[in-house]
Structures are given as structure tokens and as C-alpha cells.
Amino acid sequence: MSVGEREPGRRASDNRTRSAILWIGLALAIAVWLLRDLALTVGYSVLLAYALLPLVNAIERIRFKGGRSIPRHAAAALVILALVGLVGWIIVLATPRIAEEASRLATSAPDTVARLLQGTRAYAAEHQLQPWLEPVIDSLSANAAGWVQNLGGIVVAAMGRLFGSLGLIFGFLLVPLLAFYLMADSDAVQESALSFLPEDMRAEVMRLGGAVDRALRSYVRGQAVVCVVMAISVGPSLALMHLPGALLLGILVGLAELIPYIGFGIAAAAIVLSGISVSPSLAVLGLTLYVSVNWVVGTFITPRVMGRYLKMHPFVVTVSVLAGAKLLGPAGALLALPGAAVIQALIGELAPTDRRASKR
What does pTM read for this prediction? Predict the structure, then answer.
């Protein structure tokens, strides 16, 4: 049989393979929707594994006398244990500080609100704005105590929803274990997953898997650079301003970059709450600093970094985050960008094949 006679059969086989892969992808999307909590746990595990993989590779390359090296399983275990120890140390360090700041905030909230209202009243009197602002100030003064109590109830309820689900807590506890498996036995995990597919589909799936791997590596590297830049820019600056918990706030600001838009709101609220426990002016100053640094980094640094590691238009970023938050809540916003990067990589890998096939 000549090459020309074999070509239509090969194209038909490739088209059948791609159609089967698309149907499998649709089935996986439905499964992700039905098993959202499990999908989030697996997604976090994959991102954590990609973030820690360079450390595992570096430890594995260490050579001792006699040419012996640390086995991959041991290197992955060392990295995971170090991460768990670091997170535990931060929690132990942060919990008393958070409790102290929360108690101070609850104690000083009525006085802080009273000072704010008094300052607003003085400003209204100085600029002859009493006819417009005085009714608002009186209403706020009458309801200030109730608002403070309601705010405390909202915070307690939110914390209860966050930590009240045993399934959610168990899922987060599984993340380091699943990440360990992915780093220590990546080849075995891949082989086990491919065993569920027909043999004629495995080569194409592995090719697409390579594109997914490159996309996730690029996303993790670029996002890590942005997070570190934000943390080292905001944390020390807040410390120089004597904002309570500046070190923890710097870490929070860095982690907030993982969740576009939503993370910014969380970090800004934390800075305001920390600053207002000392004075309203310190809260405004801290918020102004964070907004300014975030704008500078978002305008001049993030586009260059993410453009180098991951080419994605801001429109795609915004729509992806909104879709992730709508489908899976705030946790889904964290996985929105890597998910969009994976989809973009898959389309980019499949589209050239389709174009070449159409030209034959």
C-alpha cells in the first residue's frame, strides 16, 4: 500500500482518537462538577507538587561519598515534612497573635468607631456640611454598637463555615500526602492512569500530557515570582510602619496573589483590621501602601513575569477567575488560572494538528 493510500486511514484514525479524547474530557469535566470537593483536593495537590518539585530534584541531585544519592522517595518525604513543619510552626506562632489582635480589636472597636464619628462630625462642622452629614452621623452613632456585635457574629459564622466541615479539613490534610505520591512516584502514577485508556490512545494522551506539564510548570514558576515580590515588598514596609503582625501580613499578601481579585480583598481587609486596632490613620496608611505596591507590581512586574512564563491575556484571566469562583466558590478561583492554562495548552496542542490534517 502506498503512502497516499495509507494517509486517509491514518487521518481517520487520528480523528477517532481525538474524538475519543474529547469525550473522555467531557466525562472528566462532569465528574469534576459532581465531585467538586475531591477535584479541589486533587487540584491543590497537583499545584503543590509542581511548586515543590524543584526542591525534590535539587535534593535528589546531591551526591555523597561513593557516588550515592538520596532516593527520590526520601527527597520527597523530606520536602513534605519540612513544609508541614513550617506550616505548623507558622500556625503555632500566628494563633496567639491572631487571638490577641482579635481580642484587642473587639475591645477597642467601640472607641474606634466613636473616634471616627467624632472626627467626621468635626469635619462636617468645619466645612459646613452638617445639614447633609449630621443625620447620617446620628444614625451611625445610634446603630454603632449593634453593627460591632453583628460584625463579630459574621466573623464567627464565617470561621465556623470554614472549619466546620470535617470533609473539608480531611481534604486539606490529604493534600500533602497526595503531593508526596505525585512527586515520589510520578512515573508510576502516570502509568497507572494510562492503564485505564486503550493502547491506541495512550501516545496521544501522553503528548497532550506533555503540554499540560509545560503549562503548569510555567504557571507555578511565574506565580511564585509574583508572590515573592509582593511579600518582600509589602511585609517589611508594614513592619517599618509598626503595623501589628507585619510579618504574617506580608506572607498573607504573597499568598493572596494566588487568588486574583478575591485575594486582594482578603489581604486589604486584613491590613485594615490590623491597622485599625492601633489607629484609623495607620489602617488608611497601611491600605494605601498595599494598594500602591499592588498597582506597581500588577502594572510593571506581573505582565512581564507571566508573559515570560505563561502567555495569557487579562481578559482570559478575568473570565477564568470569575468562572472558577462561580462554579467552585473562592477555592475554585485559586484553580481557575492553572485550569485556564491547561485548557489553553491543550487547544494549542490540538489546533495545529487539525490545521495540518486539513491541508493534506
Answer: 0.68
